[in-house]
Amino acid sequence: MPAFWGLLVSVAILGVGLGLVSAAPENALVTQLPGFNGTFPSKHYAGYVTIDESHAKNLYYYFVVSEGNPTKDPLVLWLNGGPGCSSFDGFIYEHGPFNFEAGNGPGSLPRLHLNPYSWSKVSNIIYLDSPAGVGLSYSADKADYATGDLKTASDSHTFLLKWFEQYPEFLENPFYIAGESYAGVYVPTLAFEVAKGIQSGVKPNLNFKGYIVGNGVTDAVFDGDALVPFAHGMGLISDNLFEEVNSSCQGSYWSPVNDGCKNSLDKVDKELDSLNIYDILEPCYHAPEIKQVVSSDRRLPKSFKSLGQTQRPFPVRKRMFGRSWPLRAPVRDGRVPTWPELGQGEVPCTDDEVAYVWLNNELVRSAIHAKLENVVGVWDLCTDSIEYYHDAGSMIKYHKNLTLQGYRALVFSGDHDMCVPFTGSQAWTRSMGYKVIDEWRPWFFDEQVSGYTQRYDHGLTFLTIKGAGHTVPEYKPREALAFYSRWLAGGSI
């Protein structure tokens, strides 16, 4: 590191120790948020990083400084999936610094309360909208909205290099990349770009240590073949149907081998069609007028009544769609259907009104330094404005490359997610062929079994979270902060 650069970093680190981020771009500091009347527990910064000036291609980020020790705590980049979903999903509904309470009436701004289980308790965290065209990120050249795995990884790497130039005081912090769902592709492909940049001497030099993938899309065969055994194991399809589909498909469910296999899989789809695939224990609202599930007066144990319920203090309302790529959606010429395409029209399981109202409010956009609708357009949780190609293939080769280089990896799964079932993630991590150094066992939070884990050689850990769905921190925020903190600290989960 040149002497001047080292001096700059040292001065910047001193600034962070005094509660400041000294090198942040002008006007990036977020000083207030509509709906929140308290004091921020740490500094917040937000804005755009231009990754291609000729196209005016800009990626939007929201940066939450750690509430602990910003100079020492890890720096984590968070990515949501889709492809096409905004990382404000993670910020608003999962592990951001606030819990959002719906406003008093339709269209009214939500009220924000501090989240005691925010991941900013133990880490600095960047929420990035990627690729351009997703969330609040945009390009003046709409041709940029046709993209894929490799270009998205390259663009996100460019973002990181430029972001660290603006925030050099965080270069010494251990850096991790994390995400969920289709970020099971975003994370390892970006991690590979970062590792390659480090090897080739790209500056600034990132202190990259590892990555985290939650309920992540990984491999068409492993993910696709996971659904039927998961559904059978959960008691969602009968023994007879399982035996029929297993026989007709010869154990391969992802790509039907004959008409008999296709017909059997159609029967499975019919049996599962009315379920909420993101959490099979949660209701799926098939029409806007359905606001609640009629409770039963049957005498059930108290514990049964709370199965699958989120531990968040306010109702979680998030629009999701009724099918997803890892199941059996067609991938033609490598193009991955975006989330709205995967539903049958827009058939919501729930409703994302809180995020939609908040992020499309002009006062909010101004407060978080985001462009208004006339530039970016309407914010949607998951957009259909991009055309996306899955051109990186299976992620297993990426995981093997990264872990063999010594980068740590945590693969976690909510065990009631049917979108990317834990059975597939468990199978592909096992297929890596690494030596087991911590046998399958329960892990605990608050003296209760919170899931199961198995740790392998080369820094690979697989973890389940009991009773959680596709977006684990949304359903189990306390347990999520627990395993996240323990893993980042390098301890046993």
Automatic annotation (TrEMBL):
PANTHER family: SERINE CARBOXYPEPTIDASE-LIKE 20, SERINE PROTEASE FAMILY S10 SERINE CARBOXYPEPTIDASE. Its EC number is 3.4.16.-. This is Carboxypeptidase. GO terms for molecular function: acyltransferase activity, transferring groups other than amino-acyl groups; serine-type carboxypeptidase activity. Residues 1-23 form the signal peptide. Gene3D superfamilies: 3.40.50.12670, alpha/beta hydrolase. GO terms for biological process: proteolysis; secondary metabolic process. Belongs to the peptidase S10 family. It comes from Colocasia esculenta. It is an enzyme of class 3 (hydrolase). Keywords: Carboxypeptidase, Disulfide bond, Glycoprotein, Hydrolase, Protease, Signal.
